[in-house]
Structure formats: C-alpha cells, structure tokens
Amino acid sequence: MSERHVIQVTVNGEPHERLVEARKTLADFLRQDLELTGTHIGCEHGVCGACTVLVDDQPVRSCLMFAVQVDGARIETVEGLASGAKLHPIQEAFWANFALQCGYCTPGILMTVVDLLRRTPNPSREVIRRELAGHICRCTGYHAIVDAIEDAAARLRGPAITDAR
Amino acid sequence: MTERAVAISKAVGQPVRRVEDPRILAGQGRYVDDIKLPRMLYAAFVRSPHAHARIERIDVSRAINLPGVVTVLVGEDTAKLCTPWRGILTDYVGMKTGSAYPLAVGKVRYVGDPVVAIAAVDRYVAEDACDLVHVEYEPLPPVVDPEVALRPDAPLINDELGDNVILRAGFDKGDVDAAFARAARVYRQRFVVGRQTCVALEPRSLLASYEAPSRSLTVWMSTQVPHMMQAIFARILGLEEQKIQVIAPDVGGSFGLKIHCYSDDVAACLLSIVSGRPVKWVADRVESFATDIHCRDHTIDVDAAVAKDGTVLGLRSRVVTGVGPYSCYPRSSVVEGNQVIRLLTGPYRIKNYQADLTVVAQNKTQMSQYRAVGHPMATMAMESMLDVAARDLGLDPAEIRRRNLVARHEFPYTTAFGYVYESGSYLESLDLLLAKGEYAGWRQRQGHARSDGRLIGIGLSCFIELTAPGSFYGSGGAPVSAQEGATVRLEPTGKVTALIGVTTQGQGAHTAFAQVIADQLGVTVKDVNVMSGDTRLVPYGGGTSGSRGAVLGAGASILACRQLKKQIARVAAHLMEAAAEDIEIAGGKVAVRGMPDRALSLAEVAWVVFYKSDKLPRDIEPSLEATAHYTPERSLTWTNGAHMAVVEVDPETGLVKFLSYVTVEDCGPMINPALVREQVRGGVVQGIGSALYEHIRYDEHGQLLTRTLMDYLVPSSAEMPDIEVYHLETPSPHTVGGFKGVGEAGTTGAPAAVLNAVNDALSPLGVQLNATPITPDMILDAVRAARGPDAGTPARTGGHHGP
Amino acid sequence: MKPARFEYVAPHSVDQALELLGRYGDGAKLLAGGQSLVPLMNMRLARPSHVIDLNRLPGLAYITEADGGVRIGAMTRQATAESSEMIRARYPIVTEALELLGHPAIRNRGTVGGSLAHADPAAELPVVVLALDAQLTLTGPRGRRTVPACDFFVGYLHTVAAPDEILTEVCLPAPPARTGSCFLEVARRHGDFALVAVAAVLALHSDGRCARARLVFGGVGPTPMRVERAEAVLVGHRPEPELFAAAAREVSAVLQPESDLHASADYRAQVASVLTRRALGMAFERVSGRERA
Fold it and tell me: Quick check: B284 and C44 CB within 8 A?
C-alpha cells in the first residue's frame, strides 16, 4: 500500500511497465506516461466519452479509472486500430461518411463502435443512436456518424452476407 | 491524360473526402494538450467562489513551499507585468467598460474569476498548491439581473464607470408610428432566451514558451485567430509583434469560443515569462463552464404591426442583455445584442422598424460571440411573431411568409436597418423546403393525430445569415483583419503547397481550399498540401469567424493561383516557344492551346525554375510562388435558407420528440456539398440544443449552478433527428467565385423552427411559449394552465408514445 | 480537475477489506465501479485518504440461482447483469432498468452493489430492488447481516450500512406466479439520471384480481420512494385503466418531491402520476399477454 505502484499493462499489443502515482487516471497515464495522445480528455467526469478505451475488450471511461487499477490488463486505444497507413474499416467508414469534423470526440467514439459492432453486427439506426448517446459530439449533429456506423457494420459483415438470399 | 484525371479535374462542387481525416482517425491528431516541451510546467488557478467580493488578503506561502511548485502569481504581480485591456469597439458610440487584468486586482467580479495562478511540475501538483492558497474575501452585493443592474441604486461592478450600462443603442427607420396606426392588428410578445455556452469538446488550451534572451514568445493555442492573438499578446505583454509566434495546431471545435482574449490565457503566458519555462494551461470542464464565454441570454420585446392580409407593416423591438462584468476583448460583448436588433427583420420586406438595445454589466461570466451571433434570437423572435399573426389571421404559416419574403426581383434589397442583401432565394428556398419536407402531408398527418389526441407540430423558419464580414471589428479598433492571405507555391515535383491565413477547427477548410486550388492549377486534390494556423508560416489573415473562412480563404487562394498561373505560363511559353496567352494549364500539364503534343508537365516547368533558372531570360523572375490578399468588395455577403421541424409533444411528460427535420440551404456555389451539409447538420443540432436543452443557470447570488456536463445538457445522439439538407446555389455578385459563408446557418434557423413546431403542437390548447430552452417543465405548466386545475389528473388512458 | 493524493490498496479477501476499512476509518472509501466516486474525486469533492479497491476481490461477482430467487454478488458489473439470461427471464424489470442506466461504458465498470451503496435517489437500481423486495447482505467485522431493501435506504446518498460494513450481495426473491412488471423513466437525455422513474410490479390471483402490487419511484425524494397507499388501491381489484388512474392519483397526492435544476416539484409529482398509470398498464399487459401466449 502506498501512493506509488508499479504496474504492467499491455497496450495495443505492446507490454509496458511503469511506476505510477495512485491518483493518476488511466486517461492521463495513457496520454502522459505512454504518450498515446489519441485518447482525448473532454470532461473528466464520465459524461463526454472522449476518453473511451477498451480494457480487456470492454469500452470504459479512462477518466474514471486509475492507472493502478489496470495492472495486468489488456488495453486498446485508437492508436491500435489502423495498421500503418491502412485504416480500420470503421475508420474508413467514418472518413467516407464525413463523420468527423474537429475529431476530438472521434477516438472515443471509434472504440465504442468497435465494441458495438462486435456485439451487434447489424444495428438499426435507433440502436446506434442509443448506443452512441454516451458520446458528445459538438460538431457533426450525429447524423453522419450514424451513417458511418451503418456503413462500418456493412463493411465488417462483408459482401457475403449482403449477397445471401 | 488519363480518364481518371479528367474525371476529377473539376474538384469544386464535388463531395471530396476530407484531407484532414486519416491522421485524426488514426489518433494522430495533434491538439495543444498533446504537445510536450522540455521543462514544461502546468498551470492551475485559484478562482473566486463569489460573484462579487473585495479581496482582503491572499496568502500563498504554503503553496509556494509545496515541492513541485515553481511560480505563483497574484493580481498585483500580473498588473505590473502587463497592460490591462478594455473590450471597447469605437464604432459603438458611448460604449464603456472596465479594464481587465490577467488575475483579479482588488475585486472579484464573477464566480470563476481567476485570483491566483500557479505553475508546477504537473497539473496534479498545481491543483494541490491551489488547495493551499488562502484568500480572504469581503463579499459585496452581487448584481445578477440586468434590470436590477440598471437601477440607480444598483451596486457598481466597475466603480470608476458610474453605472453598470455598457451600451445603449438603437435606430428608428421608416415611419414606424404610421405603420402601427394603419395596422389591422398589433401583436406584442416577449421572448426570453436563456444563457448558453459553446462547449467545444477540446477545452481552451494554451502552451506558452518564453525565451528571455531574445524576448520572444511562442504560443501553441487552441484558437480560431492566431494573428489576432499575436497582436494582442504584443499589446498586452509589451513584446514586439514579430517576436511572437502563435500556432493553432489541430483545434477541437470552437464555435466562437476561441476568438477572445481570456484572462487566464494571459496569466499563463506570464507564468512562462516569470518562470522562464514553458507553461501549459488546459481548462478543465468545470473551469470551462465558469470562464468560457457565455452567450445569448437576451430579453426581447417585439411589437408587430400587421395588415389583414398578413403583410408586416412595421416592427418595434426592445432588447436587454447582461453580458458579465466586462465587455469581452477585443471583439466586445455588444455585437450579439446589436445583431439581434439589426437582423430582426430577417428575409422579410419590412421597411418601418424601430429598435432599442441596452447592454449592461453584471456579476456573471463574460458573454460574447457564439456561433451565429444574434441570428438565432432575431430569427426566433421574427418567425414566432409570424406564426402568432398567421394563427390569429387564419393564414397558413407558409403563406404569411410568402407574402412578406423579399422576392428575387427585389435584389439588391436594403433592409430597414440598412443592410444590403445582394442576392438570394428566399421564396424558392421556402418552396423547395415545403416540397422536400412534405409540408402538406405533415399538415394532414397532424390533423389525424389531433383527432387521436396526439400533439404534432410543424415549425417553419426562414432566415438570412450575415457571412464573411469585412472590417466589422477592425474599424472599431480591434486587431481583427478584414482581409485574408494565401500563398500558393508550385514545388519542384509539380505538386502544390498552399499556406492560408484561415484556420480550421473541424470545418474541413483545408479540403475546400485544396479543391479550389486543384481546379485552378489543373492538378488533383491529392497534389495540394494546405497548411494554416501558424503566424510564422502563413500570410496575415483574420482567421476563422463569422462564416468568413471559405469565402475569404477561397477568394485569396484563387487570386494567388491566378498570379502563379501567370508565372507558370511565362516560363512555359519561353520553353515551348509560344505566347504566354496561348498557354493552358490542365490535368497536370502545361500545353500550347490547340497543340496538345506541345506540352510539359508542371514538374518539368518547375524543374527549370528551381534548378535551371540561369537558363531563363533575365526578364522572367524565377518564381513559382504567389501570395495574394483578398477583401470582398462588399463588407458582407448574405446566405439564406429555410428549416422545417416536425415534433410530437407528449402533453403528459412535456417531452418533445422529433419526427422530421428538413432544411434548405443557399450559400451560393458550393465548394464541397458534403462539407456544407455537415456544417448545416452540426449547426442545427446546436440550435436544437438552444431550443430544448442548453441552459447556463445562476442562482440569485450569482452562483453558477451548471458546472458539469451532467447539469448543462448538450444534445446527444439518441434524441436528435436525422437532418435532411437540400441546396440551392445563388451566387453572390460581389465575391470571388460567388461564394457565401455557411458556418452558422444551421444554428440560425433551428431554434425558431423548433419553437414554432412546439407552439404549433400546443396550439389546440391555446398555448404560446416564448422562452428557450423549452423544458418539459414549461410545457407541462402551460398544458396545465390551459386545461385548468384538473389537468394534473391523468384521466386519459391513451398516450403509449414515450415512456 | 485532478484527484487529491490518496493511498491505494487492493485487498484480496472480504476479511482483508474489512480490516482495512476498520483501520482507516472515515478517511477510507471503497472503490467498486468508480463511476460515481471517481468523478467526485476528480473534482476534489471527495478526498479519501485511502482508497480500498474492491475490484481485486475474488468471489464477489456472480449471479446464481437460490431458492427460486437469484443472488447477485455486489461486484457484478451492471453490464453482466444486463446480459444475464437468468435475470432477464425472472426479473425483466431489472434488465429494463439497467438498459436505462448510463451508457455501455458506464455499465461495463459500474457494479450492482456500487449503485445500491451509493444510493442516489434518482438512480435506477435502488428503485428496482425496492420494488422487488430484495434482501441486501452487509458484511462487517461483526459478521453478516441481511437487510430488506425497504430498510436499506435511509436518506440522500445514505444507507443503513455502517462505516465498517461492505455491501456484498443482493438477493432477489422468487417472483410470485402471474407477475408482470414495468420500469419507466423520464430523463432529458438517454442515459441521464431520471427526472422521475417508476418501477411497477403487479402479481395477479388466479381469478385475475390483483394479489400484490409494488410502486416505487426514483427522483422524487431523498430515497427511492415506495407508495403503499397507491399499492393498496390496486390490491384485491381487477386491473383496469380506471383502477390504474386511481392509483396514479394517489401517487400524486402522497409524493412530495423537491425542485432542482432539472425539474420542479410539481413536474415530478405530476409525471410520477402519469408514469404510474402507464407502467401499470404495461405491467398488466405483460402478465396478461404472457398468459394469452
């Protein structure tokens, strides 16, 4: 027990070991200690969703966890989605549908969509709008994001399903 | 030349994908808070818990002694280090306001007023240090309500000014008394628009790095206006302007929030100057609610004189607004109120109009320009008056608008205030809206629904949007540039680099400029690399505000391209032994007209200029770079459009649900229709936020009650409708390319459409709501009042819609 | 907005957690899902000297059948409970309420026990456990005790749990045969705390008369509020719209909510009444619909 702890985490497949202060949030740990600044901080009270990352495959608010709590966990952030210059199909769909403007909320939304489409491969617009409600986007008005998520779902399902009679 | 190149050679008008996106999608966007410098410190502030108090004593000794704390400043320290500022625009005769400092000196004047600034090794420690500061206050009576602020016995917010009035303004045009005398009906309504704030998702952020030996300051800042901030930091900090570099990297939304000089921004720069180390200052969300500009919050009384046929003969308006303790710097806090009175007549032919505006100081956060400055309130008041009149006169709301809209043949049209609408499609927009929105069909469905006891409402709103303002601020003494600069350079590879003064906060401006430049130079969008936001890199410009970015940035780009093409043509003409007038530039090639075999690639021309310029004749300057600066020939250009909202109101819960939302937008020729569409959609949702959700609340002591995103309700996806956007394209005769701005149109039209839709839904009950945001509470109160005292008893068993 | 300093400890057994809680006393805070506590800490409105993280405790996350009812370990994530088929089949009202609780990312961390122990009167789960007559198990240095939900919530953000006790389990009793239920709420935005929430549970006799009713409300008082007078209107009578309206009238007569930033007292009272009528209608439709099926 103390104010500082050594933690081991795997982030986007890469193992890290760091000494952290107990009070450091996971969001600050990712951004400052690991310099993964793709995860953004918008409110630090769990409402805006900008800091959403996957911890052991599940989306969580990284502003509402302490880094010390993820010792031993597997974390995925927006930086882990694309491989090199090749965007993830969800990222492609966001690009194709004009689903971002300033882009500050986008990384958090992308992580939620990764989880949503794993659970629900073919969500209706209504389901998308409900699942997305934990993310504030101030620029787009959401319509294009909903379009993009529908498009991403189709891309991830692949042509085989659309062709099936 | 390949088919593909031909197909994409015309980029303007196409929904070209945004060049900004892949990087941001991959998490490689770079916002201010993502930047780290060696020895960087983090700032935090001790802020006033009082709306109005005298500072008796500040004890920072424990904070200074906390390990990790480097610099602690109080108001008197900062006052010695800088020149205070006053948000006066000299155009507004009689305007007055107090001087502002980086940290409160003597008195605090709103909850959140910064009192002590601390720089420490990280933000955690900086906040620990804030906890250790002890400030003794002697509370003073707060001035909260603008009407109370105007009373002769009201406490003074700035003692030296004598009263709390910042500005009284107004005008009287035409013959208003005569118009009211001959009116068949006079309608009188009071509209109360709630206080709001911008809520950019990226908070205000700044990283200041001062180099004492050279007296130079570099500031990375989340801002719309790098050149303006450069000028302001020079004025306030007493540094030479050319030694200040302001860089706006990726900016996470702004909406008018990031065009002001904030006390804490200056204080953060002073922390860097005093500590000699880089200092980062990022507002947290609670600080954002307390210190980001607030907006709206106007009380608008309108009288309308209307003829029996629905013609609006005359208007009177009286507007009162409280704007916080000081007028904002440098754009002031009086523009929104002036826009409300000036724009009230909207797209309508109303020649007789008298208006009064009173802007007062109060102990609340500063108010200033938020997206669509004044427009939404003016539009809401006017559009609501038209519905009131239509209902009374038995006219269809669409019809009363048709009878008053300025028709195409009337352009250029001069408004009662004196604005000149150069072109537009007011009637055409309304007609297209009614067709695309299935207005008649919805009226039928509304009738059926009413017979089932359901309340469906249809709201229309026609609007004009003032865009691309010229010397709006500069003529009043603010360092806000009316022009915009662009440098376009052909690189040795034949690709293009463009440096534009306009900044981007998410609008996709780089994409739009790349499209314009690609067409001008006959290359593809991919071949054009646009950069902006760095005062040391780009030509001087006014940045982004007032829906000016596309109009001025594209205009300057086109002018620069024209010059560059001349340079290319002269070199190519020499190389191909042709006349410069015969040179055509298209598809990445430079060819002699009518002789397609005689062509060079742009890269071949560039190679000669860059690496073999000694082979060129002496009278050809070896330059493939042109800079142009552009100011439109008129100081404003006018966009227009129309919105239709269809809602269902649950009279038992007061919840409002959208059934349809359709808009028509005419911003002239579109550079990229997808960017226009998304500007409109995003703006509409901010407008819906104004109409239904967003409200900054204070108590009677001036305590801020809405301090988190739990309390200040930003619209979320679940309640927002799909938004259809249709386009008309009426060019401006006065801008290069005929372009008009579009950034604020959605926010302008939406509150009116929503308020009208709710009132239309409630109209069978004889209810008229005139305050926004319209809360479930207000709707239920109105329903209850209309239905009488027993209305609270739910006797009905229907109503399976909603929870 | 960064939390003040604290010491962090992650016990590996309930006994160890209790020992730590005893040792650090009032300065200590138990950290479950953290979705309410951490925002308060970030704003420095909560400044525990010690944070006792329950997330490393084995054996407190489970959903098991017991005597026809269901036992839910306090550290069960809300998302896990939401997707539990056992809960959905027996207590669809729990699933219905969980779907309205925050957002997926919140429910992935938030725990069933954490929400109950936090005792926000506008939260969904306290309302539901009260409507289902749940039993809550508190474990402390003097052993375990079981508290009925109706005695658990004693004030705003305040429960009967002693400072040295930990909520370890919720037990939902077997629902009577022929039970229908419905959870409704009015919130400004999906996922927000409710302005008003209602949980309605109706159990019918074989002759169709109402055998038992529960009407519990959120957002209308310092705790989740059960309105027994409205329940009494229903019991012994045949469910029908007029009866539901009578119960609804009773609700608005009994409840005395307060005004706040989000809604007035009048609004809350009136909407509680409206939601009563609607929820009873839905609950009855569900039980009768199931029988028709």
Answer: no
